[in-house]
Design a protein that fits this description.
The chain is mainly α. The protein has a single domain, classed as Glycerol uptake facilitator protein (Up-down Bundle). The protein has 10 helices and 2 strands, in the order H-H-H-H-H-H-H-E-E-H-H-H. Helix 4 packs across helix 9 and helix 7 runs antiparallel to helix 8. The longest helix is centred in the N-terminal third of the chain and has 25 residues.
Length: 245
């Protein structure tokens, strides 16, 4: 249970800070409004770092169902723990989104005439509606995410302190932070780079359930993309990792 609790807390913090930067740069009268995509990508990268710093020592800080499944396929994680991790991650994502709404509630009220903007602070929507290409973007982005995470722990990325060999992952959360920022800046502009069902589906559900003034529908027609895409992408990454390493 301790591992699940830390996955819950880590994912909660990830979504609180990640959706938080979306709210800060989008909602009316926020001091960061209009700060732009670079700030959002940096904010999400740092949000992942904070979640990893909290959960890493206890649960390994997957914070993402696609990471848990990808690691399990690659033989790096126990399948028996996967359902509990996913439940904890999804619950953490939901509560994180609710906390963002509470924190920015006055600004959500001020932005009631922009329902698309409000939705964008909870979950992703495509810049151009093209279901299969949107799916491909999410699959490729997640494949890269999981493949690099797996690669971080390989012998080829090892360095030594004295007689102790350490993988690049021993540098802590920083490599993954850089990875998230890189994916966001280079590949995130088409779909908003969910690359994580707990980051998208849970906040989307929160958007649907919360009494948000002026909100639109929750974009359920698109909700399959940031769920199925990452799950396919993580399987691709695990297969590729097993093939080349």
């Amino acid at each position: 249970m301790t591992q699940y609790i830390f996955e819950f807390i880590g994912t909660l913090v990830l979504v609180l800070l990640g959706d938080g930067v979306c709210a800060a740069t989008s909602l009316k009268f926020c001091k960061a409004k209009g700060a732009g995509w670079v700030v959002i990508a940096l904010g999400w990268g740092l949000a992942v770092m904070m979640g990893v710093l909290i959960a890493g020592p206890v649960s390994g800080a997957h914070l993402n169902p696609a990471v848990s499944v990808g690691l399990a396929i690659a033989g790096k994680f126990e399948w028996a723990l996967v359902p509990g991790y996913i439940i904890a991650q999804m619950l953490g994502g939901f509560i994180g989104a609710v906390l963002v709404w509470i924190y920015y509630k006055d600004h959500y009220k001020a932005t009631a005439d922009e329902p698309d903007t409000i939705l964008g602070t909870f979950c992703t929507m495509p810049a151009i509606k093209n279901g299969w290409r949107n799916f491909l973007c999410e699959a490729i982005g997640t494949c890269l995410l999981v493949f690099v995470i797996l690669a971080l722990g390989t012998k080829g990325n090892a360095f030594a302190i004295g007689e102790t060999a350490l993988g690049t992952g021993a540098l802590g959360s920083w490599p993954v932070t850089c990875l998230i920022m890189s994916i966001g800046m280079s590949l995130g502009a088409t779909t908003g780079y969910a690359i994580n069902p707990a980051r998208d589906l849970s906040p989307r559900l929160a958007h649907a359930l919360l009494p948000i003034k002026g909100k639109r529908d929750s974009g359920w027609w698109y909700a399959w993309v940031p769920v199925v895409g990452p799950m396919v992408g993580c399987a691709m990454a695990a297969g590729l990792f097993l093939l080349v390493f």
